[in-house]
Design brief:
This protein has 121 residues and is mainly alpha-helical. The protein has one helix and no strands. The relative contact order is 0.13.
Amino acid sequence: MKTKMLLAGLACAIMATSAQATEPSFGNCGEPPHPNVDWHGCVIPTHEQMMGQPALNLIGANLSGANLKGANFSGANLSGANLTGAKLKDAILNNVRVSPQTLWKSGKPCTGSKVSTCPKK
């Protein structure tokens, strides 16, 4: 009887560990914007109605050194934001607004209002 209980407990522990290993990992999505914030994989609420969360004001936000890999910024306004050193791999940047005051990940400014005007490196 003890052996069966031990094996059952071990099986549960293995399944729990396996489930944790296969779940997607996300950053601290509820954290406010600040340098080095970890928002990887997060959907950034940029509109009041999005997911019932209040919109984040990212105009002039300091996101330098932030982990933004795979984050969804669709429709965000990053005008004047500082993204120097930010990790943006696989970030979704559809319809994102920037400005010549926006510092892109290289620390250089964008030259217009679309992400395509920001330095590639």
